[in-house]
Amino acid sequence: MTGRIRPSDVLAVLLLTAFSVLVLMPFVFMISTSLRIPRESFTLPPKWLPTDFRVQNYRDVFDLVPMGTYVVNSIKVTAAIVLGQVVTASLAAYAFARLRFPGKDLLFFLLMSAMMVPLLVTIIPVFVLVRTLGLVDTHASLILPALTTPFGVFLLRQFFLTIPRELEEAAFIDGAGPWRTFASVVAPLGAPGIVVLTILAFNGYWNEFFRPLIFLNSAEQYTLPIGLVSLRGYMGTNSVAVVLAGVTIAMLPVVLVFVVAQRRLVEGIALTGIKG
Amino acid sequence: MTEQQLAHTSRARGTTLRSLRVREAVAGYLFVLPTLVGFLAFTVGPMLFSFGISLFEWEVLTPPRFVGTANYAFMLRNERFLNGFRNTLLFALVVVAVNVAISLLLAVAIQRRLPTLLRAYYRTAFFLPLVISTASVAIVLSFVFNREFGIANYYLGLLGIGPIPWLTSSSWAMTTVVIATVWKSFGFDLIVFVAGLQSVPRHLYDAAAIDGANGWQQFWRITLPLLSPTIFFATVVGVIGNLQVFDQAYILTKGGPGDATRTVVMVIYDDAFGTLRMGYGSAIAAVLFVLIMTLTLAQFALGRRLVHYG
């Protein structure tokens, strides 16, 4: 059986290759168009190779629109949320994995049911809350409600449960309380889990569209996805190349993370399924 | 560590077992506190508020007025909502069916003996759309599917098809949104199916082969039954997610032409954040929530019984 190529193997490769080409074509189109002279953005027949190599588009997108502002805003909002989620989720995950306190199981159950509550059920009241606090059109409106994450608690708890108890007991015998044990044993050994949460949260909030669309209304506050969508409407079809340069820039960080940490990211994405 | 050892250690330090327990519990509550505050302030509170306000007429600037179930009754007569609901249901079912079919096919294909590098290439290609933003996908695809200049119509034109009004005709727009969604999301099902296939015991196929079953029979008699829990999972998760579709439809077509691609969440968005009818918007959200919860519970309850666990 080994060594022989069967017809069905050839068929599988053909199928996979055809689909991979279909999937990758828009990316190739995006990159090659982003390097074209703007008024020739749409040339038919399509030129798949970036013949013009007009890197200028990547500079123009920063000059013509507040691209720099969008980038800074996205970094700021995403970093704050990721940091907040990692801190709150790892603390809670440690408590649920190891500490004993009355009501723990009930609390954990309630928190896990929160994973099933879709964003659209809470978005109206959260908007009202944000409005009441005078936070509309500020980054705090995006950051504040996203600082905690039931899914992150679930994820990290799974990782923390695999840390050998003996290590924590050793810390205890050395006189460490729960805080010291958490900081010196659990957090370092649970780092792989924290990395997965960081990658997933970064990916999700960097790409977020719905909440920024509702909470932000001035261009100076826009994050990348919403900024780029508004940019498309504002620049028209003659400058598609410049718009696509912007899209490429926005995509770069998540694609880089994907390339570097594909396995972790894929495992994490498979897990996010359970939160529906 | 046994209770005895614990007690011994703590006595040596001049503390009692009891005070250690209290300290541990206090730490537990403190550790959970931030998450709990966020949970109450941004999930439980809003959820209750949302159900409550769905019984009121409330335009934010005016005081709320109690209207009982009027918002729900209005929904049933409101063509915009009903149309959005039909669109969303159809959209979710088609996307999930196509996603499952494509991913199943690709998962079986990628399981074959392939050169490692080739498999890595396929995985990268198929998973890449999962990590980029729906906004980027929609922007790029809106150019790809441009009627006059898009590459999609150019290549179809070479085959003598088209030009297809992908985004500008009410009969095509939904198809285009479906294609964009499948392109972006089938990788998730693929991940789940590849993982599921790895748990199908190899020896079943060997035994079937000895009995003379061909590849097709093996697929229907072994792969599909043993993968059924996974397929069920992917289907429910997919339906739940796609019932909440907004971003790609909003960016590609703004719900148009007409109301052809207007989804439920888009109706909520328009009513709650456009015309500020918070009560009505909340009522729609509540209906969608009940539907989603029912599906979630069905998954827990039926998942075990309906499908074959190997």
Summarize the structure.
Chain A is mainly alpha-helical and 276 residues long.
Q: What fraction, in percent, of the residue positions of chain B are helical?
A: over 70%
> Which sheet architecture does the biggest sheet of chain B show?
2 strands, antiparallel
Number of helices of chain B: 13
Low-confidence stretches of chain A: none
Order of helices and strands of chain A: HHHHHHHHHHHHHH
The average pLDDT of chain B is 88
Structural class of chain A: mainly alpha
Mean pLDDT of chain A: 88
The Rg value of chain B, from CA coordinates, equals: 26 Å
Number of strand elements of chain A: 0
Quickly count the helices of chain A. 14
Q: Unreliable stretches of chain B, pLDDT < 50, 5 or more residues?
A: none
Major sheet size, sense and barrel closure of chain A:
none
Please describe the structure with a list of short key phrases separated by commas or semicolons.
A: mainly alpha, B: mainly alpha, two-stranded antiparallel sheet
Tell me the layout of helices and strands.
The complex is a heterodimer of chains A (276) and B (310).
Chain A: H1 7-34, H2 56-64, H3 67-98, H4 104-114, H5 119-132, H6 140-143, H7 150-161, H8 165-173, H9 178-189, H10 191-206, H11 210-215, H12 224-235, H13 240-260, H14 262-272
Helix pairs in contact in A: 1-13, 2-13, 3-7, 3-10, 7-10, 8-9, 10-14, 12-13
Chain B: H1 3-12, H2 17-53, E1 56-57, E2 65-66, H3 70-77, H4 79-110, H5 116-131, H6 134-144, H7 151-158, H8 173-198, H9 202-210, H10 215-242, H11 247-253, H12 264-274, H13 278-306
Antiparallel strand pairs in B: 1-2
Helix pairs in contact in B: 4-8, 4-10, 4-12, 5-8, 6-11, 8-10, 8-11, 10-13, 12-13
How would you sum up this structure, described in words?
The complex is a heterodimer of chains A (276) and B (310). Chain A is an all-alpha fold and 276 residues long. Chain A has helices spanning 7-34, 56-64, 67-98, 104-114, 119-132, 140-143, 150-161, 165-173, 178-189, 191-206, 210-215, 224-235, 240-260, 262-272. The two termini of chain A are 42 Å apart. With 310 residues, chain B is mainly α. Chain B is built from 13 helices and two strands. Chain B has helices at 3-12, 17-53, 70-77, 79-110, 116-131, 134-144, 151-158, 173-198, 202-210, 215-242, 247-253, 264-274, 278-306; strands spanning 56-57, 65-66. Chain B has a two-stranded antiparallel ribbon. In chain B, strand 1 and strand 2 form a beta hairpin. In chain B, helix 5 crosses helix 8 (173-198) and helix 10 (215-242) runs antiparallel to helix 13 (278-306).
